[in-house]
Structure formats: structure tokens, C-alpha cells
Amino acid sequence: MQARAGRPVRAVATIPPAHVPALDSSGPEAIDAPVMTWERALDAWRLKLQSETTRATYASAVRAFFATPGAPDLAALHLETLDAYSGALRLRVGKDAPPATRLAPATVNLKLAGLRSFLAFCRRRGWLSPLLTGEAIADGLAGVRSYTQRPYQIVEGASEREALLDAAAADAYDPARALALIALALGAGLRIAELCALDVGDLANDATGCYVDVRNGKGGKDRQVPIAQDVYEVVAAYLAASDRAVHRTADRATPLFLSRKSRTRNGRLTTRQARRTMMACVHRAGLDARKRITPHGLRHSYALQVLAGDPAQGIAAAPLPAVSKLLGHSSVAVTGRYLAHFERKELSAYAPSLRRGRQAE
User: Fold this and answer.
1) Active-site position among 90, 291, 296, 325
2) How many other C-beta atoms are found inside a 10 Å radius of the C-beta of residue 193?
């Protein structure tokens, strides 16, 4: 199996051959049709995925699998193939794995999820052996157990938030854009792909308050995320600096965040450019000296701040279902993982006492 030209692929494992019973194609009902290759199947499958980020990530996982030495084509896939591949990935998880090839559990699970989804699509189209059932695919590509990282890598407290915002305002290339990126990441908790996908018309300020419309987010879901007035004003100032306005009809269909490399008003900032800008802000703020804060870490920062509330400003803690909706999670169970990252001192207040409610003797 050859890897894509010009893109060297490091082998994860060598998949051993296994005996697969041949399908009987000599009967009168046999169909003389070309065998579906995994490349053609991948092109067909990608058209079914709504999110551009999901398409790129899952397609990369599928290509990595078929670039593995010994990987057969679709019709010859079998359970032993999937077992060998997932087993090789599992060996790269954990402290015992060689540092040069070590993978995080979330990375492995993402690779396996992409391959599972692709093979499920191929199975529904009849491109796989009947022996490779849905149950076999799920069993052979079962995910690994993830772990909780402690301490959580987030922006904590007003001092760190102010330092990050000041660092964004000091950006050498486009300070207004950098400040708007950081403000929306901290103030709305959007994924980096969602930030870059925003149009000017997705920003609103009406009688109900300020909010952003997230269209076709992860899983193809739409949602509205309220934002504070000061966050809205920072983004509006960036639009003014780029000679645009929220309520100007000609501007509403243009990308909210523009790439400086583009010579048109329709050049959208890429996720790579946004990540580079945000990480530079983290570095200038000095936050990377103690912890590793990523753009997704700003989303975590937003989630934990909303869950905790701000009693000093009279802001109550948001219930878990509300936070789940704000973040665009597929279920409340996903949002519940954030609860594991509250510091012990914050949770100690909820520890029950045996003497609470008891009368003194």
C-alpha cells in the first residue's frame, strides 16, 4: 500500500496477513463491478461530513491506517487487521511508551473514531466483507481510556486574563484582531475553528443583549452564545479598525477575522494563523512559563469560569446543562468532565459533615 505522493507517513505497525474466506463471485447473481478502493471511498465519505475540521481530521486518520505496511484494501479488511492496528496505537499510550512516539489517549481515540466512522460508512455501502460486521468494527477499534490532566492548563484569575488581553493589544501585526480573538475565546468559549468560521453578520447586539451565532459547529450544530458588552465592544473596535461595521449590509457576509496575507476583504483567517497569533499572545503574557496554555485551553478557561460563577460581581454559577449548551457539547456527560478540574479547595466546601443538621448534645 503506497502513501500519498509527497507526504511521507511513519508506519505505526506492520499489520500481519490473515486468512479471509473468499466471497463466491461465480454464481449467476454475481455482479461484475470494479472493486471500490479506499481512496474513492474516502472521497465519497468526506462529502457526507459537514464540518471542515472533522473532514480533515478524520481523513488524516483513514490515510494513516491505509499507509501502514500490510494494510489491505477495503474488500480484504478483517477483524485481525483492526486488532493489530488499534493494538499498535495502544502501545504508544502511557508513560511506558517511548517519548518519541508517545501519543495522548485523546489523540489515539480521535484516530480510532475517524476510522470507525469511515468503515461504518463503507459497510453501509456494501464495500466491506460481510464478515466485518458493525460489532466487529466497534470491537476492533474500541477507544482507550483517557485520563484527566492536573493541574488543568487554563487562564486563572483576573490578573492572568488582564495579562493575556494586554499581550494581545501589543501584537505587532494586527493588535485589534489579536485582541478580538482572545476576547471572544475567553468571553464565548468558541473552538478555534468556530472563531475562524464566523462572519461579521454572526455578531449581534439587540434588545436581548450581545451574542454570536455559531453556524455549523462541531457535529453540524448551530447555537447562539451570549457575550458581555465589553467583549462585543472589543470585536466591534476590530471591525472599525478594518473599516467594517456589524450593521453594514455589505460587510455582514465577509469573514469576521481577516487574514492580513489576503488582498481582498474576503480572505478568511485560517486556524493555523489564529493559533499562531493566540500562542504568541500567551508567550508575551508570560503564561507559558508555568503551564502550557493552548487556544483550546482558553475554551476550557471559559467553561470553568462559567461553571464557577463570580460571586463578587453577583454572577451565579451556571448549571451544567446550560454550560453544555453554551459549549455546543453533544451531551451533558461531556461537559461533566470539566467538573473534575475544580481545585480541591473549591470542592472542600461541599464535603458533608456528620454534625450538620444535628443538635448539640
Assistant:
1) 296
2) 18
Average pLDDT of the residues in 244-256: 92
Domain contains 357: no
Q: What is the 3-state secondary structure (H, E, C) of 37-97?
A: CHHHHHHHHHCCCCCHHHHHHHHHHHHHHHCCCCCCCHHHCCHHHHHHHHHHHHCCECCCC
How many domains are contained in the chain? 2
For position 15, what pLDDT does the model report?
Answer: 55
Q: Report yes or no on 291 lying in a domain.
A: yes
Active site residue 58: no
Dump pLDDT digits (tens) for 83-112. 999 999 999 987 788 888 888 888 899 999
Q: Is 44's pLDDT higher than 90? A: yes
Active-site option among 218, 221, 291, 325: 218
Establish whether 299 is a catalytic residue.
yes
- Give a yes or no: residue 31 inside a domain: no
| Residue from 123, 284, 299, 300 carrying the catalytic annotation | 299
CB 64 within 8 A of CB 9: yes
The residue range of the domain holding 93 is: 38-140
**221 a catalytic residue:** no
291 is known as an active-site residue: no
Please tell me the pTM assigned to this model: 0.70
CATH code for the domain in which residue 264 is found? 1.10.443.10
- Residues 209 and 294 reside in one and the same domain: yes
Active site residue 338: yes
Same domain membership, residue 187 and residue 112? no
Is 316 domain-assigned? yes
Q: Give the active site residue among 191, 244, 300, 341.
A: 191
191 classed as catalytic:
yes
